[in-house]
Amino acid sequence: MLLSSLAALISVAVLVTASPAARDVGVCTGEVVVSETFIGEEKNVKLQHVSCPVAPTVAKRAIAPRQTSDVCGNACETNCFSSGSEPTSNDCHVIADALRFQSQNESALFEIETGVNNTVVLTFETCTTFYVNQDPFDQLYCRTDWATLVDFASHVLS
After folding, report:
1. Where is the signal peptide (predicted)?
2. Domain of residue 41, residue span
3. What would the pLDDT profile of 91-127 be if each residue is shown by its tens digit?
């Protein structure tokens, strides 16, 4: 079984007057947002690439393969946990729909480098999901597979 991990992080939405909801919990301690954009048909799902300040060991860097592996359809580890209140399942469905929209209009696949310094985070209102590649090689993963997992997790949690 691949060591890749797709985790559904459920975060508390913090509403401040008319400002959009924000996560009050990061993916990791000291999380740094490397890039941020919005995806989906309505451009309302926040996509962030985040880095966690963990120094890679020399040994891990020395043995890291240089090729990318397509892991679409493969088994992965899915973890669901709450950081406070439960998400609204409709909020999670918005993320899943945005992933499907990107799959149809941009590319079915996305590449993610190895390690916690290359985490992809998707957020809409009360629902946050992130993908961490824990294999020692870069991966190609299907947006539609991720969407299916987000839909499944939202049904389990509702």
Report:
1. 1-18
2. 5-157
3. 999 999 999 999 999 999 999 888 777 889 999 998 9
